[in-house]
Design goal:
The structure holds two protein chains of two kinds. Chain A is an alpha+beta fold. Chain A is built from six helices and twelve strands. Chain B is an alpha+beta fold. Chain B has eight helices and six strands; from the N terminus they run βαββαβαβαβαααα. In chain B, β2 and β3 form a beta hairpin. Classes of the chains: A alpha+beta, B alpha+beta. At the A-B interface, α3, β5, α5, β11 and β12 of A face α3, β5, α4, β6 and α6 of B. β11 of chain A pairs antiparallel with β6 of chain B, so a sheet runs across the interface.
Chain lengths: ~250, ~210
């Protein structure tokens, strides 16, 4: 996002609408004040532009070139990812699990959303987390996730070096693991999160077992992380219903 | 993405915060699903949602509700927000009876949602929970601010906007209802709960000893 210095009257109405606090003011030699966007901090989310608060239409969105273009695709949910055709940063994950069968009994979906809430993430931090998790071995990052497509090496979690200088509002690291690996992943995320320059939001998905239990949640609690009281529930109304073969 | 997960708050102030939403699965039951998603929105509107929305069009504080319903696409994710468990339950029953064949998801207190599922006669299929916020949490604002901003999982409600609205209400420049509506606008999907935002604003004003008539 940019602000046309000639049009801007320096009223500051756009400032509160910046998700990254990247809008500041510049005073010229003749005392005129106008707003300017710190291009390194701006993630091209478009919130200030869509708020339509500028009385002089000074905000504008230049079409970004690679690799800056990843900022908008990961930060502006109105931009649909080519890989997933899902607007936003992730995948259908558990939302359509009744139809896709992506998460099966005995498996857990785990996702680390880097930069959420409201802090943003640099790809250097994202890579720290992907490489730390990949180093555990036997990890397959979700192939439909747009972040996975930016990895230069999916086995090690190394990102395309061209994007390492970029910053996004958030990006989601997604994987499906055998349920018994939940404590191991939690321990690795705990260890790596302490080395980050940002925050991340961590979540856990599981099918509900026929007896109504959710063992993955119990394993997280045993690993010292109590699942929150609120969460998401897919109520199984999608059709055709994915039928899972249950091993005897 | 988990755009309705990670909403911060105590069980007490999440009691009035439920998102009921629907989508089709790409390449499986996607073709022609826009009509079912449209029907979903029409059904849930009968039960008084405090916000509705679709990423493709916007939320009901930015765009007329009729436009949101009319513009559904096969790739839409359509949402309605309810500020009571009873409204959620009635809407869920109606959606189940309509047998649309698209995936339906509820975000909210999991025990309450489980209870609604039992009463509506539907089975929980898959659950997702938040394991919290990790890393440099000292970079985050107070929990009071997070309760507002995390109601938009895409991060479209900036911390700075929440602070500005609180200050505007405190200074009498906006009413609580106007402040809550302004906070709801940037959340394109329409999953922001303005009713809960108004309750939170009121609570903050009370804590500061400011009486709002």
């Amino acid at each position: 996002m940019k602000i046309d210095a000639q049009k801007c009257a320096g009223c500051g109405r756009c400032r509160a609408y910046c998700t990254m606090g990247a809008i500041g003011f510049v005073r010229t030699g003749d005392g005129r004040v106008y707003a300017a966007v710190d291009q390194d901090e701006c993630v091209d989310c478009g919130v200030c532009f869509r708020a339509k608060v500028c009385p002089h239409d000074a905000l504008y969105e230049p079409a970004p070139e690679w690799p800056r273009s990843v900022r908008g695709t990961f930060s502006n949910p109105l931009i649909e990812h080519k890989e997933t055709r899902v607007p936003g940063r992730g995948t259908e994950e558990m939302k359509t699990n009744d139809v896709t069968g992506r998460f099966k009994l005995g498996e857990a979906g785990m996702a680390i959303e880097m930069g959420r809430p409201g802090t943003g993430a640099r790809f250097t931090d994202i890579e720290k987390m992907t490489m730390a998790i990949a180093a555990l071995g036997g990890i397959t990052f979700e192939p439909k996730n747009p972040l996975t497509s930016l990895m230069a090496d999916k086995a090690t979690g190394r990102m395309n070096p061209e994007v390492l200088g970029e910053k996004v509002l958030s990006a989601i690291i997604e994987m499906t693991v055998p349920v018994e690996r939940v404590p191991e992943i939690i321990a690795r995320v705990r260890e790596t999160a302490s080395q980050l320059g940002t925050v991340c939001s961590f979540d856990l998905t599981s099918k509900v077992y026929p007896d109504g239990s959710i063992p993955a949640f119990d394993l997280a609690a045993k690993a010292g992380v109590q699942p929150t009281a609120n969460g998401k529930t897919n109520v199984g109304l999608g059709r055709p219903l994915f039928v899972e073969e249950v091993k005897a | 993405m988990s755009h309705t997960l990670h909403r911060r708050g105590t069980p007490k102030d999440l009691k009035n915060d439920y998102v009921l939403f629907a989508m089709s699965a790409k390449g499986i039951n996607e073709a022609g699903s826009h009509a079912k998603l449209q029907r979903f929105l029409e059904i849930i509107r009968e039960f008084g949602p405090v916000n509705i929305g679709d990423m493709k069009t916007g939320n009901s504080f930015a765009v007329p509700a009729e436009e949101i319903v009319a513009n559904t696409k096969d790739t839409s994710i359509v949402h309605g927000v309810f500020d009571s468990r009873e409204k959620l339950l009635q809407a869920l029953k109606a959606v189940k009876d309509a047998d649309l064949g698209i995936s339906v998801i509820i975000s909210g207190l999991m025990d309450d949602v489980h209870d609604c599922c039992r009463k509506a006669g539907v089975e929980r299929h898959t659950c997702e929970t938040s394991l919290g916020i990790w890393g440099q949490t000292e970079r985050l604002p107070d929990e009071d601010i997070l309760k507002f901003s995390t109601m938009c999982g895409h991060g479209m409600v900036p911390f700075s906007l929440v602070k500005k609205i609180i200050e505007d209400v405190r200074a009498g420049r906006r009413t609580i209802a106007e402040g809550a509506a302004e906070l709801a606008k940037p959340c394109q999907c329409g999953v922001f709960n303005p009713s809960r935002a108004a309750a939170l604003l009121n609570e903050i004003m009370c804590l500061w000893g400011i009486r709002i008539d």
